[in-house]
Amino acid sequence: MKAAPRPCSIADTLALVGEKYSLLVLREVSLGVRRFDRIARNTGAPRDILTARLKRLVEAGVLEKVPYSERPQRFEYRATPAGEELQPVLVTLMAWGDRHLNADARPVVLEHRCGEVLSPRVVCAHCGGEADTESLSHHVRSPGWTTAGPTAPQEA
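Given the sequence above, the corresponding structure tokens read:
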């Protein structure tokens, strides 16, 4: 029997949106691309995989399927409030890729409404301080776990 992995909201989130095409669907919807054929074209996702990812995102309440044509019946996909909350995640992933993978030629640049190119950062909503490795401490709340792992040996 395999030991249970650490309980973790990151793992739970990745189970839903961590697959490549799921994140690319969210990118397209955030860019205003909402129809299946365009999403398929812009992501390069095989149609069967895209259908499955869209269904899962709708079932999870991240996207909603909205009719735009009765005959023939056709739908578009829009972000729900939960889906819109993933925008900062996409922006932060993009910024990391710009710095570490595409430093010489960023494929897209985001401009903030202030007119400057966006440089995202994560800050504490309480004090406004930047949330970086030095400023954070972890407090594990899952019974039987510490930051180092399980408190008791688990059966393998």
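The longest strand covers residues 63-69. Try to locate this feature in the token string yourself.
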